[in-house]
Design goal:
Elements: H1 7-32, H2 37-42, H3 44-54, H4 61-74, H5 82-108, H6 114-120, H7 124-131, H8 136-143, H9 148-156, H10 158-178, H11 182-191, H12 219-239, H13 244-252, H14 260-268, H15 288-303, H16 311-327, H17 338-356
């Protein structure tokens, strides 16, 4: 595209198109018989030039102006209101969704515009970081097992890694159900607890046989350690140059929830504390994906401790967890509707039932003397007895020969 070449030549190439835009705007003013200089000329002229350069249809100018005006109400204003904030959030989301669709169209069918040129030059990932739009290729790159940070998590905190993978399955399924970005939710879940690699043994899933370290710490110290896994996780992602959207999920995945175990412990010890002293610093989730990661994180971890693993017991548990987030206001800043939350609950319930359903308790093996020709399971159970301790095939028992009926 000419605009990516030498600057003076590129600017000169724009002249005919700008002249056509000016003529169209002046013709429209003459046809109306009156004009608002700003609304009818000063705004649409540069906006139309920019849209032509990007490859955005001029017919979308009106909706672009609505989104831009809503964002401008909030951005750069020191004193704002919740209403302006909400409009700015909607405008930002809708504009980002629009350009994601446009980028996808240009990938499939390139044109002579700036977006197509950026895609062809391989500059879209850089542009995506600036505009905070993550490409599918970038997400796939982050979720590969060879990712250096993910490998560190696997080695340093294997319990956390296992939890994160299972929670990611829940998050991806729920995100698909509500039309959120399922790959972003999965990647966010992979790294939501990455800060635990600094002190892995301070978290129960990594303690194994060493005992609970928090028994020797004060409740406030334990609370501070749990806070640190969020802040240190964000810092690690910055060091590894992770996209902003992933860092925000990590920062928001605990919201401002209360660490109730340590809060109750502090009360039992007679300490003068408030519930707010044991809240995570936040902020609360501000996107569908961040909220889904929060829910998946809690449900996966708590489901491991369930005594009633019947289908009804698991569904009741998932419902209680989500209702708890709603009552605590943790989902107030994201755009999950009540319908969305019902879909999230259904999707996660089905997944948890399939993972943590009640299992049959197998009886201990009976010690019997082997009969000639029968297979012997020397491994203590776990398969059908066709392999011995050296993984060599041994014969299966043959059914006893049945007497054939005599011909009549």
């Amino acid at each position: 595209m000419a605009i990516l070449g030498e600057a003076p030549r590129a600017i000169e190439a724009l002249r005919p198109n700008i002249a056509r835009i000016v003529d169209d705007l002046l013709d429209a003013i003459v046809a109306r018989g009156s004009a608002d200089l700003v609304a009818d000329f000063a705004y649409p002229l540069p906006a139309s030039v920019i849209m032509d350069m990007l490859g955005v249809p001029r017919s979308d100018l009106a909706v672009m102006k609505v989104w831009s005006d809503d964002i401008a109400l909030f951005v750069g204003i020191a004193r704002t209101t919740p209403g302006k904030h909400a409009r700015a959030q909607v405008g930002t989301r809708e504009m980002a969704a629009y350009f994601r669709r446009l980028v996808a169209e240009r990938r499939a069918a390139p044109r002579d515009d700036m977006i197509s040129a950026l895609i062809a030059a391989g500059l879209l990932p850089f542009l995506g970081e600036i505009t905070r739009v993550i490409t599918p290729m970038k997400l796939l790159e982050l979720m590969t097992p060879n990712n250096p940070l993910l490998k560190r998590l696997m080695v340093s905190a294997p319990g956390t890694y296992n939890h994160s993978v299972v929670a990611a399955n829940l998050a991806e399924t729920a995100a698909e159900a509500v039309g959120a970005n399922p790959v972003l939710a999965r990647v966010g879940c992979y790294f939501h607890d990455i800060g635990k690699i600094r002190r892995p043994h301070f978290f129960v899933e990594n303690q194994a046989d060493i005992g609970n370290i928090h028994e020797n710490l004060s409740p406030t110290t334990s609370s501070d350690i749990l806070n640190a896994h969020v802040t240190e996780g964000v810092e690690l992602l910055k060091q590894y140059h992770f996209p902003t959207a992933i860092r925000e999920i990590v920062q928001q995945h605990q919201g401002t929830t209360v660490k109730r175990y340590f809060y109750r412990q502090a009360l039992d010890q007679g300490l003068d504390v408030r519930e707010d002293d044991f809240r995570y610093p936040g902020p609360r989730p501000r996107s569908k994906e961040a909220a889904i990661v929060m829910i998946a994180d809690t449900i996966e971890a708590s489901a491991r401790t369930l005594k009633d693993r019947s289908t009804e017991g698991i569904r009741d548990h998932v419902h209680r967890m989500i209702q708890g987030f709603i009552r605590d206001g943790q989902l107030d800043d994201c755009d999950l509707s009540f319908r969305d939350l019902r879909l999230v609950e259904e999707a996660m319930s089905n997944m948890v039932v399939s993972i943590y359903h009640a299992r049959i308790e197998y009886p201990a093996p009976v010690q019997e003397t082997a009969k000639a020709g029968e297979a012997v399971d020397t491994t203590g159970g776990g398969h059908d007895g066709t392999l011995d301790a050296d993984d060599k095939t041994i014969p299966l028992p043959r059914p006893a020969a049945r007497p054939r009926p005599s011909p009549s």
